[in-house]
Amino acid sequence: MEKAAFLFPGQASQFPGMGKELYEQNHEARELFDRADSLLGYSLSETMFSGSEEVLRQTRITQPSVFLHSVINALVNARNLTPAGVAGHSLGEFSALVAAGSLSFEDGLKLVNIRAHAMQDACEQNPGTMAAVLGLDDEKIELLCRQVEGEIVLAANFNCPGQVVISGSLQGITEAEKVLLEAGAKRVIPISVGGAFHSPLMEPARKKLEDAILSTPFLNPICPVYQNVDAEASVDPDAIRQKLVAQLTSPVLWSQTMKNMFRDGFNRFIEIGGNGTVLSGFLKRIDKNIPINAITG
């Protein structure tokens, strides 16, 4: 028996022109893009359709763009599909909550916009960066990061076997790269992001986002939402809120999330939004036999 889940990507899945074809060809999508522009007070859609890669990489632009692209695809192109569960990678968790009916479209966009600006401010207040580590076990990477003294550096995204993203201060990541390569890492690849996401350096953003989340209505979702901080399913609105707040400074347990969804009987996955390759690539590294399709209009 098929048991399908929707998966929603986060930052690094954006691309120039995202959503333009959807806007031009679908009346319902056009209305949602226009409503988002009105809510935000500026034309995000124009930036999505015509902005350069450099502009789209700015956190305050990237996050609402990826959210909007994912949610509109879910509401329009996946409207005839009913997921048995949903999950989102980092920012994608907000898209997942809208798709599951726990957050309204408007409230989801509002929270993502607050999150994006708060994280941009935190990046400027506490400079940092991230890097992907290839070819070492998760536990070894965690141990080696703890050996970097006097700097913040930790494993932040457990994406799939053989790929963990570390996050921390600029000097911390530089020192960790040396330690990891000496210990046998195949590569340590800098990631073009604005700061040290999912690390203690995001604490100023967490405080701002917490106030917004706690004042936003959350409903019971139509299906379980697997959340990043513990890789487990949530259906209680209060639990969803607390995990969403904690997510900003906690590691993303994506590989474990997928394994827990396998455990719970999910056997088909649909990646919705972004360029359609990020989460599909992770899943193939976790279990190449599990089918996954992409909706990326």
Can you put this structure into words, describing what you see?
The protein has 297 residues and is an alpha/beta fold. It folds into 2 domains: 217 residues, 3-Layer(aba) Sandwich (Malonyl-Coenzyme A Acyl Carrier Protein, domain 2), CATH 3.40.366; 65 residues, Alpha-Beta Plaits (2-Layer Sandwich), CATH 3.30.70.250. It is built from 13 helices and 10 strands. The strands form 2 sheets. A 6-stranded mixed β-sheet has the order 8-7-2-1-9-10, sandwiched between helices. The protein has a 4-stranded antiparallel β-sheet with strand order 4-5-3-6. A hairpin with a 6-residue loop joins strand 7 and strand 8. The longest helix is centred in the middle third of the chain and has 21 residues. The chain starts with a strand and ends with a strand.
Give a concise summary.
The chain is of the alpha/beta class. The chain has 13 helices and ten strands.
* Order of neighbouring strands in the sheet with most strands: 8-7-2-1-9-10
Let me know the largest β-sheet: 6 strands, mixed
The chain-level mean pLDDT equals 96
Order of helices and strands: EHHHHHEHHEHEEHEHEEHHEHE
Unreliable residue runs: none
Counted by DSSP, the helix tally is: 13
CATH architecture of the largest domain: 3-Layer(aba) Sandwich
CATH evolutionary superfamily of the largest domain: Malonyl-Coenzyme A Acyl Carrier Protein, domain 2
Look at the helices and sheets and give the structural class.
alpha/beta
Radius of gyration, whole Å: 18 Å
The dominant shape is globular
Estimate what percentage of residues fall within beta strands: 15-25%
Distance between the termini: 28 Å
Number of domains: 2
CATH topology of the largest domain: Malonyl-Coenzyme A Acyl Carrier Protein, domain 2
Beta strand count: 10
CATH class annotation of the largest domain: Alpha Beta
